[in-house]
Structures are given as structure tokens and as C-alpha cells.
Request: fold
Amino acid sequence: MALDGIAIKNIVKEMKEKMVGGRMSKIAQPENDELILTIKNNKDTHKLYISASAGLPLIYFTEMNKQNPLTAPNFCMLLRKHIGNGKILDVFQPGLERIIQIKIEHLDELGDLCLKYLIIEIMGKHSNIIFCDSNYKIIDSIKRVSAQISSVREVLPGREYFIPDTKHKKNPLETSEEEIKQLLSTNYPSQKTLYTSFTGISPIIAEEIVHLSGIDNAKPTIELSDNEKTHLAHTFSLFIDTVKLEEFTPTVYFKQEEPVEFTSIPLETFQTYEKKEYSTISETLETYYATRNVISRMRQKSSELRRVVQTTLERSYKKLDLQLKQMKDTEKREMYRIYGELLNTYGYNVEPEAKSIEVLNYYTNEMITIPLDNTLSPQENAKKYFDRYGKLKRTFEALTHHIEETKQEITHLESIAQSIDIALSVDDLVQIKDELAQYGYVKRQSLSKKGKKEKITSKPYHYISSDGFHIYIGKNNFQNEELTFKFAEGKDIWMHAKNIPGSHVIIKTEGKEVPDRTYEEAGGLAAYYSKGRDSEKVEIDYSEKRNIKKPSGAKPGFVIYHTNYSLIATPTTSGLEQVNEIKKFSN
Reply:
């Protein structure tokens, strides 16, 4: 979610702890709308990253470095001139606005103490960094806003700084429970009433408050009973008390590996997601946006592979549908054979120019009517039916082979699509590219510069169960093949999601008996790294590796087995230790 007033309050708390009493050591402007402030406070050094980007405004402490331009921009030079080595007296947030003000004391050219304010506005496309004097007169800003750009407020040197109050929202930190109740009389649903009536309240926070109150969010607040309004106002007030006391627990919620939301206060509405708590809001924000950025870049990098696989899959699905329809047309072949045989047996009973004959079907002991061509003799009609039977039989035999090939191709492509879905880095895509090229889905030279073979550095996932057993999961078909037939030993346990694309999972037993808990955890991994990862439950087949066979000529990762057990697993990786390096496995 975007940074709301509550997240900003959490950031201000951290800024106060790290910055107040410290001095501005360095000021850098790596991008047109970014600042990096280095603050030295006692023996500690902190870097504050600030972005006023219209697309993604952010502020948090970081350890990262960004390359600066050879010539510092004018705004950066101005800040260095005025507040370089300045002492930070305070950091505060007006109300619950998405605004942070840094109060800085410094010496002017005459050696006199002066006050300045560096104001960070985190307001979506209107985000800005504004530098003001002690009287809140604007000295300059990272984005200048003229009257032609905004009719609400000019942000230009010499203008007075003020916070626009265009929507006349209330400050929830200073609003009584009775006042909150009085505002619950709009035609909007409860959630929208809250976030449109109070500053700093995002739709997600409003949804959480309504959820905690147990009120029907679909009902307009004007239709709520007096008791319902009282209860909602009380729930809102209790939630804001947590904010006032700054009882923050920075948290990121994940759906599989992908972060879906971050918050400063844990939310019950996201309790179905996996969550991870962090010690600071800065760590939360950096993790959230860095992970989302990695996933976004991975999707871009894998988009061409996805397109190739999806296009080929769609063609294969259409081909299979056509083949199945053609197969349905061959269902009459046995009937034509029987017509021919019965005509050879009872043809002498056919009357001249008859268009049909009813005879006893000695296969079923029932009467059957055989259509006839009255221009042909019974023997010629029989030959015509035998010809039809022969043609449909040949079609049936050919289609049986082609349908099996098409189904195997679909299974193979779906497994490749699954491999793309679980890939976490560009390195993970190398073997997938190689497999697509090997089976002719793409031209090899189109996948790497100058046709050079890319180095394979991707390794299988490696987890350690609660009981100390090592569990390995293939990221693609080549890794599945090598894990099962080269890495695993006879009594190691092999697992796979039943009848759906997924990774091969190997439990290394090392001659020990595997506890039930390890089976359950490995089953959860097999479900998670399969096409069924969004399902609540997935059926998992497992067996000793010695029972797993590879058919001759089968594509990589394709196996058969006739001895196995099954378990029902919930797709999850939680609670398991993941190991980064796999020393015993080599490509």
C-alpha cells in the first residue's frame, strides 16, 4: 500500500530516535526527485533515503549507495550551503498528515544561529521536498509548482508554505469518540466514510477498523443503527489509541514469496497470508519494495519465455480439442464392421431397391436396422461399410498415437510454465531457456547474445526439516531429472504433486527412518512448488526413489511408478530452514 499517515508516524518515530541531536554529514541528490541524507549522531551514522517520485514516493533508512551526478543539482547545492553540518533539533508530523518536517539549526554566513525546515510530503503524484526558513517561507523545493500546474498551492521560492486543506478531513488524533460518531452519517459504506473523513487513514486501515467492529461494510453509514455507530466509533478510537501510543509492529504480508502488503500495525484482514515482522519500519519498507522490484524484474525477464510457452500451450490445447472431436467421429467404426458382417450373412434377404433391412444382430441377440444404398447390391453395401470401418480404424489408431503425443507435449509445457512461475532469479531461467531450445520451441541463438551458451549457476531449493532431514526441490525439469536419477539414492523418499505439474522433491534419508512430521513438511513443499500452490490442499504421491522409473525416450522430469503412498498437504514453506548453497549437488 502507499505510505499512509500511520506508516509516516512510524517512520517519524524511527527518525526521532536516530536523527535528533545528530548533524547533517552529507547531502546527495542522485536523481532529480531523490535525496540521500547522511546523519552522524554520536558514534552512529545513518543514511536517510527520500524519494518524491510521483510513481513511488518513499522515505526510509538504508545502507544502500547510489551513484551521484558529477555536478550536484542546484537544490542539492542549496541544501549543502544552508544546512550542511546543521544540527537536527526535531522531527515531527503535523497531525496524521503524510508530511514529515525536519527542524534544523545551523550557523549562517555571519556565524549566527538560524532555523530551517526540510519538509517531506509523501502525497502520491503531489509528493515534494520543500526547504523553508524559520518563518515557513519557501526557499526552494525539489519540484517547483506554479499556478499553471496547481490552482490550490504554489510551491515557489518566496511563497508561504502551508498544508492544503482541500478535503476538510479531521485529525483522528484529536477527534473524540462522540465526534467520530457524528461523522458516521454519509451515503458511503463504512470503510469509505472513514478514509474520506480522517487524515492519514488509508482504505486498508479503514477496512481493518470496520472488520474489527463487525459492521457490515456494504451498508451506508447513514443506515447504521445508533448502537452500530457507537460500536464503530469506539473501535476506531481504540485503534487510534494504539497509533497515539506508537505501539507499532512493522509487518510484511506474503502470498508465497511475493509481498502483498506492509503495515505498521498487524491486520486481522490479512491473517490468511504469511507474515514476517521486522524491528524497524525502514527494514520493512526496504524489504517490501526491494522484493517487489525483484519480482517485477523477473516477470519482465521471463515475459518472453512465458509468451512462448503460453502460445505453444494454446496451440496444443486447440490441437487436442480437434483430435478429440475427430476421435469421437471414429466411435461408429465397430457399428460399420457389424453392418458389413450382417449384410454378408443376411444379404440374400434384401428385397430389390430396399433402403434398409432389419436383421438379428447375433452379437447382442437383438434386432437391428441397417441402412442401405438401394442402387447397390447387398455385397456392395457390405463392402462400403467395411471400407468405412477400415478408414475409421486407421484414423482411430493414428489419433490414439497423436493424442498421446499431444497430451505429453501439454504436460511438458505445463511443467515448463510451472518452472517459470517458481523461478526467483535470472539464473533460474537459464536451464528453462535451454530446455525450450532443445525441444524446438525457440531458436537457440535468440536466447543469448551471439549464440553463446549461458553458464548454469541455478541450484535446486534446499530445506532442512524440523527433524534435521535435508529436502531438495528441483526448479525445472533438468534439475528434477538429475535430483531423482543422479542425486537421490535407492531408499531416499521421492515426492510429487499427484496428476499436476510440479517439482520433484527428495528427502535424503541417509539410512534413517523418516518421521511423520518430515513427511508432512516435505509434502507441503511438494504442494507449494506445484501448480496447486494456490489450493488449500494438494494430494501428494510419495515412494522410495528405487520405485521411480523413467520411460525410454521420455522428456526430462517425466517418470512412472507403480508402488506409492499418498498424503494430503497444505502448500507452505513456513517453519522450514532454507539453505542457500547445495554443496552435494552439481549440474
Observations:
- The radius of gyration is 35 Å.
- The CA atoms of residues 111 and 229 lie 58 Å apart.
